[in-house]
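Check the record.
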Amino acid sequence: MSEQQLSFSEKNHALDNNDNFSPDDRFLCYDTRGTVFNSDLANCQSIEKIELATGRETVLWMPESVTGVQAAPGVAAVSWHPSENKVAFIHGPMLNEVEERGYYGIRNRNGAEVSADGAGHFQWLDKRAVATDQPTISGAHRGGTHRHEYSKDGLRIGFTYDDFLCPEYDRTIGYMEPNLKAPKGASHYFAVLLKPAQKGKAKAGEIERAFGDSWLGRKGTMRAFVGKLRAENGRDYQQDLFVADVPENIVISTAYSGDATHFPEPPEGVSIRRLTHVGGVSGIVRGSADGRYIAYLAKDKSGINQLWIIPAEGSDQATQKELLPQQVSSFRSDASDLRWHPSGNWIFCLVDGNLLASYVQQGPHFGKAFWLTDDSKQRSQLVVSNNGQLAAYNMEVDNGESDTSTSFLQIFTLQLDLEKLDVALSEN
């Protein structure tokens, strides 16, 4: 299958494992982290897009910034809306806010949205409010949101969250949606999906950290995630797969936004399900397009991260065989960067820097894997187009200057020929 270099300009083009393809698959969005000073998101200066047909790059958002050990605003981790021409991303404090808020940090950032036509139409998604002399403004947060992901219907945005007022709590997950009660200056109302146990104080079975989250299905009613929890022995920790169920008719304004000493609480009606109980889960979990299955990474008996799938309503403690998790791969090295094909028949991943396709339909071909690249190059940040015809990823490329050579993170694409894969299946 044909691999091509898409970007060439002397700056980084980080895809960052987000939803980078435009709805019509004509563009990819990216950030430029690591181009200036260091790789910290605080020093990332711009959100951009590149046209697949021409390689033409367009800056979508580039606010005035300062860089260095302390930097602001910091803009990064961009995702495209599933049906509209706009993107969501992390945004730290504007320069005129630094004196009051401080510089960029994981507990000092918001979600922002900008038009993807290059006109720079900008708005804040969520409001940050850290006053300690009164309860937190309803629908606001007191820290930082990160890795904003639209649900497929575009009505909800999922994210990870780090609290500033109660740093004794670790990262958790949340969601936001447009609401008439959204705080002034923001388009969306904020809520956590899980209040974790305080760091180091969890009882057996309690989650202290939630991350690696993604939506399942179209409507944003299931958010799968990895939970770090206290093991049953009451001493060790392990990481397992969970799902937060968020009813379609939930009233987000029933969430408690917290105060100076109380962490935010989820809205009424959110429930958490545990799908695995043996630990070893890592990475970002991924739901199939129809929401029926979750793909995730977990260690095999040799300690290698393999690809697994489980029904969204499944459990490793289920009595019905069809609800149990299945190990898809038996790779000799760790898999990473899981991505479903829109058909639901294939899952793509990276192993030793190469792209693989694994067949996951039940039957005699289940688990068969094919190397789509086979070399010593190091690919990362895999994404798959909405029509399933193209994979995109990053690779470091040297600019070629002999004495002052500098490498930059560039975007490459690979045509995904399902007819070739189907032939390969039939021949094996």
